[in-house]
Amino acid sequence: MDIGDSVEEATFRAEARAWLEQNAPHRDPTKRHKQSSTDTEQDEHAQACRNWQRVLYDGGWAGLTWPKRFGGRGGTPWQAAIFGEEQSKFEVSTGAFAVAHGMVAPTLMMHGTDEQRGYLDAMLRGDEVWCQLFSEPEAGSDLANIGTRAVLDGGEWIINGQKVWTSGAQHSEFAILLARTDPDAPKHAGITYFILDMNTPGIEVRPLRQITGVAHFNEVFLTDVRIPVANVVGEVNAGWKIAHTTLSNERALIGGGNTAWSIQELIEMARHYGRTHDPVVRQGIAKAHSRAAVLQYMGYRLRTSISRGEMPGVVASTMKLFYARHWAQTTGLALTIQGANGSLWGDSALDDGLWQQTFLGQYAVRLGGGTDEIQGNVIGERALGLPREPAADRDLPWRETRGSTR
Amino acid sequence: MNFDLSDEQKVVSDLARQIFEGHASVERVKFIEREGDGFDRDLWSELAKANLLGLCIPEDDGGSGFGLVELGLILEEQGRRVAPVPFWATVVLGALPIAEFGTAAQRRQWLPGVCAGDVVLSAALNERGADDALRPLTTATRTANGWHLKGFKPTVPAAQFAQRVLITARQDDGRIGVFLLDPTQAGVVVEPVRATNHQPHAHLVIDTVVSADDRLGGPNGDGEEQLHFILERALVGLCALQLGVCGAAIEQTAAYTSGRLQFSKPLSTFQAVGHQAADAFILTEPMRVTMLQAAWRLMHGLPSRQEVLIAKYWASEGGQKVVHLCQHLHGGMGSDIDYPIHRYFLWGVQIETTLGAGSAQLARIGELIAREGR
């Protein structure tokens, strides 16, 4: 065990810091910026992410942990963590590439053909944003129940169905898609994993305006959308297992992410509102600080296990659940500290309403990538070895489980 | 950076597990509780034979020179078996400070004996009327023969078995001193008390004189520094014990709820049950990472005050929640003392409150982060 930068890591940190100083504007840690909420602001944010990703690529800092043969730097998970820590002090983001880099890339590296791995370079260069077409109106926690159909027609698959909760679909060039290719097989055994070009005719993206005021998620309607057979990832009808690679990485991505605030901001807020002598507020901030420390150390464990080549399974679910609760509890505390002002909104509120927005955004964190309850199931089954909950539909043909109306 | 245990650390952990599993079976623990005085001397001599008592004592003093992370691994294994031996009191509260600050004579007199299993030590950190061990109320007055110690020290672990108890006291010159007291000497009343977890503790009523040679580190020893040293390690030791208590309690709960059928299926397949077990797991992981972080930093001489308090906060707050969940999920079996799970509940609650429960740690963390920032 060795917690702390080794000599090589310290050298790497200094090198990263020096390069960032040359190439990125500083972030003021005490000042928060309003999240992009209008469509124009979202477009600008996505473009800024593309621009910064290109700078990273040209500077040799993109794909830190990716193998060199895929255009990456071939570095360690620790180097990626160090670079992330340093980068967070600057006013730059790669957020629009979270799905591409965090979820699609590890999946294609593990399961893709050489041709499919050809997509990696463009996402690394900042040219292509990806989104994830998994969830459907009737397939949320029960993701394996998806009903979007894919039917083979010569050299192409024809897709019909509806997806929902798709982050960033409006900015994406490509998508990963789960669709049902064998409705007569049990539900887990008839799903295929596709790569979809979002410029294909028949795709309609409709934004969902959320409680936070932002339209981050979308509905995506697919009508006679054609996908070449070469875009199947893995085998036909064997997409469920591949989806697991993506989901496991999604949990690690969410759970290992930075929060949108620092404890110092809460302390400053408490001072600003004269609440530093309130013992409940003091304990609340101390608890938030302790949770942040836990997430930092759990991140060390996650990276240690990734650096051994393990899939981020139980640790990712644990972190994701812990992170979601931390988010909910801490943003709730922030509104409590603001007292009556906590009920204000938008421009009328502190920091242009960002705390209110973050508080309301907790549901995206607690539900996305598998709900709190799904993580509870994963931990029960995989960490504690509890028997799986009996499921009546597990071995039946999917078509028979859909009820008489279909 | 690497959060894996080294091969050497794994060997220590495996060895400790082997000894505790082999010599602290449920039946044995029950027997000591029923027939004995709460101190399993057979297990103690097995620990000595395996060199685990001296593992973290310097080689010059007869030990093996390992550090606090390794010590934490041993305590975790003790916690897993809720084994009745005064390991925390002797090694963490007694031997570590003597090894760090003791004069040559003090080290020679006590440490080889600890390694051999012949000596039990402890420290008196609690004070009635003050919840902060850093501000002792017991007084030490300089006399011609040494130091006159006067005060009351409640709930001292294993005091009735100890050859020496480290007494923290406020000296007449305003400084803090730590003194090696023989609890059997005249002027000390040892009043055994019952504790929540049934482990031996005693109150000490002290009105006696100790020799000047019995001041830890001699006349120039920095009592303030010594007290911080003892307290930080005491807290991390408790965290390690609690980690073992909680880890084993969850495993037993998973096994119990998976084996017990109600409504024709295992209890654990009801999400209302399985999710409570998962919650207990989620609370134990923070205990593990914060304990290791604090132990590792202390071992490497890095500033660790916040990390230690954060670890004890999780051990207290998370620990009590875990043992409550496990107790509850055992249904009626939880209250049957013929069944082992209740001991984990009692140990969990005892460790929670020892040297400050969760809210006390939070108050200290709050003071530190408001002052230092982060």
Largest sheet of chain A: 4 strands, mixed
Identify the most extensive interface between protein chains: A-B, 48 and 49 residues
Rg measurement of chain B, Å = 21 Å
Low-pLDDT parts of chain B are none
Question: What is the architecture of the largest domain in chain A at the second tier of CATH?
Answer: Up-down Bundle
Number of helices of chain A: 12
- Kindly name the structural category of chain B: alpha+beta
Q: How many strand elements of chain A?
A: 8
Q: Helix fraction of chain B?
A: 40-55%
What is the N-to-C order of secondary-structure elements of chain A (H for helix, E for strand)?
A: HHHHHEEEEEEEEHHHHHHH
Net shape of chain B: globular
H/E element order of chain B = HHHHHHEEEEEEEHEEHHHH
Radius of gyration of chain A using CA atoms only: 22 Å
The major sheet of chain B is characterized as: 7 strands, mixed
Helix percent of chain A reads 40-55%
What is the CATH superfamily label of the largest domain in chain A?
Answer: Butyryl-CoA Dehydrogenase, subunit A, domain 3
Structural class of chain A: alpha+beta
